Amino acid sequence: MTKKILQRRDFLKTAAAVGTGLIILPGGVLSGRNAQSNKLNIGLIGAGGRGQQHWRALSDENIVALCDVDENALALAAKEFPNAKQYIDWRKCLDQSDLDAVVCCTTDFTHAFVANWAINRGLHVYCEKPLGITVEEVRTVRENYLRNRNKLATQHGTQRHAFPNFNRVRELIIDGAIGTLEAAHAFGNRQIPKPGYLPALGNPPDTFHFDLWLGPTPDHPYNPEYFGNHEANPGTNCLNWNMYWDFGVGQIGDMGAHTMDLAWNAIDADFPTSIEATGDPFNPEVTPVEMTAVLEHPANDWRPAIQVTWYQGGAMPENSMRYIDLDAIGHGVLFKGSRGFLAAGFQSRALIPFGDEADMTYYRPRSEDELIPDMGNFQKEWIDACKGDLKTSCDFEYGSEIIENMLLGLVAYRVGQKIDYDGTTGRITNIAEANDDRLMRRTYREGWTLDG
Ligand SMILES: NC(=O)c1ccc[n+]([C@@H]2O[C@H](COP(=O)([O-])OP(=O)(O)OC[C@H]3O[C@@H](n4cnc5c(N)ncnc54)[C@H](O)[C@@H]3O)[C@@H](O)[C@H]2O)c1
């Protein structure tokens, strides 16, 4: 782990100074960085909704393929990128021979598929969060990425990572502004209760390929409520399906991925040794609204063992400082150290020295030239990495570890007991059945494979 941490730190310091020079894109084009021919050939999979929010960031590159199961979303995207070939099935899209890279904005339950198949075809990948919805899925994608990291650039879509506040929080924590780090409590207070899967209602319009939308996940009847904001509010329709077990992982895949990123960026952790979780009574159809998952993390080279806790849907960290309103932060992290607290939201932070020992003599603020450089635009970092040194801030190693930790919280919640975990093998070591289907992995509809 030490090696990985050092690599990451070195990278953070040098991220602003990515090298240029001649490069060969997967599509085979040899050219200089700023040459016209050095544009990436990108396929946008999930072209509407959140995909639409990537249009501008991608507009300087060649969008050569668009894929969407909704022909209306496809037609809208085609107006923006008229030269792109159009697909309704991402498997066919990935076989387009001139692709260099793909951006995946489909449903959470297809991310690991698209990402893994794309890596198998030698394509750079930007994938919206969460990278997968089971531990097996995120580990599969990570292992594939690690085998190909000398050829491919990946980025996990936690774009809030580009807020300078992420760097300021990291500096305060690793420089000891709150003393020795003891715990990181990440919390999100969004509540989207759903009673259960929706009943059959009507038929999908001719322009919507519902069977392809279901893809690998178990069969469910069509109901238009899963697609409420499909076109009206791009990027919000996920809230209509991501709370159901067969379609997502609730808060964890939603705001949780962003919020835990704020903690993760500052703690240099990888796999927990044990996980314990409590929450709403288990509903076999819908993920819990309220849940707390406590993950024990071993020491690393700059801090002792710490507890990392995820609170969602109303559960909140214990807070003795009444003058800090964590509810008002909404989605954030409370770091606890031996000499104080750091309460952080995505774009702001409050440092609270605490106790008689907290005189701040142990802390020296960085000079301006010692600050971690801004990463700049999040999508552009990935595009530049595809053409350059392949390094990104939220590559599939970093991103998958965040999601794996959070998914282990859900596994512990479902098991209802403390689970011990071996991050090297990806096995729960104290309860054999906890490694079973539906907990750590899931069965796919016939004809669908994660490794195609
Ligand atoms: N990073 C962020 O801040 C952020 C914000 C919003 C959404 N998201 C993520 O983006 C993803 C999409 O969310 P959304 O609200 O846009 O959902 P959505 O239901 O609107 O889907 C997005 C688009 O993908 C298409 N699509 C769905 N399944 C597909 C498939 N198998 N193949 C091809 N196209 C498919 C849909 O028709 C739609 O046009 C989710 O994973 C969500 O977590 C991320």
CATH topology of the largest domain: Dihydrodipicolinate Reductase, domain 2
Share in helix: 25-40%
Spell out the helices and strands N to C: HEEEHEHEHEHEHEHEHHEEEHEEEHHEE
User: What percent of residues are in strands?
Assistant: 15-25%
Estimate the global geometry from the Cα principal axes.
Answer: globular
Taking the sheet with the most strands, its summary is: 9 strands, mixed
CATH class of the largest domain: Alpha Beta
Low-confidence stretches: 1-24, 27-34
Mean pLDDT: 92
The tally of strands reads 17
Summarize the structure.
By secondary structure, the chain is of the alpha/beta class.
Detail the topology: elements first, then pairings.
Blueprint: H1 2-14, E1 23-24, E2 30-31, E3 41-45, H2 55-58, E4 62-67, H3 71-80, E5 85-87, H4 90-93, E6 101-104, H5 108-120, E7 124-128, H6 135-148, E8 154-157, H7 164-174, E9 181-188, H8 210-214, H9 255-267, E10 274-279, E11 291-297, E12 306-312, H10 326-329, E13 331-337, E14 340-344, E15 349-353, H11 378-387, H12 396-415, E16 419-422, E17 427-428
Parallel strand pairs: 3-4, 3-6, 4-5, 6-7, 7-8, 9-12
Antiparallel strand pairs: 1-2, 9-13, 10-11, 10-16, 11-12, 13-14, 14-15, 16-17
The structure holds nicotinamide-adenine-dinucleotide.
